[in-house]
């Protein structure tokens, strides 16, 4: 191989290495202003299930709110806890909110991709994230009969 071809390849290789180093160095984030924000798994905080999550994700005129809520289940009006804890479901068998075994609660099951009865909730809205589902499960386990 001619000397000038080798020299060009070497120069191209050196330029490529320099470019990669420059790109890597420019992507360095530097210093975090608030590093503690990232220590708890990304900063997700559970919304209040009764006053925030249920109204935003489960409420609405054709869902679980108003004078004739779906499945007779109003998740927005005052008294949600009293209507749910240790109460039987109307259209699907099971306890709506079972603090002893939260994962078997009908309310929790209906939020899963494949509930044991009926369609997964919420219908027509984005499914709950894993974090939101964990919030609901934790809220259920915190309820007292």
TrEMBL record:
Superkingdom of source: Bacteria
Protein name: Cytochrome C Planctomycete-type domain-containing protein
């Amino acid at each position: 191989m001619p000397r000038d071809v080798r020299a060009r390849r070497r120069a191209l290789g050196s330029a490529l290495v320099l470019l990669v180093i420059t790109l890597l160095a420019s992507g360095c984030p530097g210093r975090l202003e608030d590093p503690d924000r990232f220590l708890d798994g990304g900063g997700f905080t559970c919304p209040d299930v009764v006053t925030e999550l249920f109204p935003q994700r489960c409420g609405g005129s054709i869902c679980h709110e108003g004078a004739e809520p779906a499945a007779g289940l109003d998740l927005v009006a005052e008294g949600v806890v009293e209507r749910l804890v240790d109460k039987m479901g109307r259209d699907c068998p099971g306890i709506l909110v079972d603090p002893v075994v939260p994962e078997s609660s009908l309310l929790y099951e209906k939020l899963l991709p494949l509930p044991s009865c009926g369609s997964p909730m919420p219908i027509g809205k984005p499914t709950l994230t894993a974090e939101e589902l964990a919030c609901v499960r934790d809220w259920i386990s915190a309820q007292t009969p």
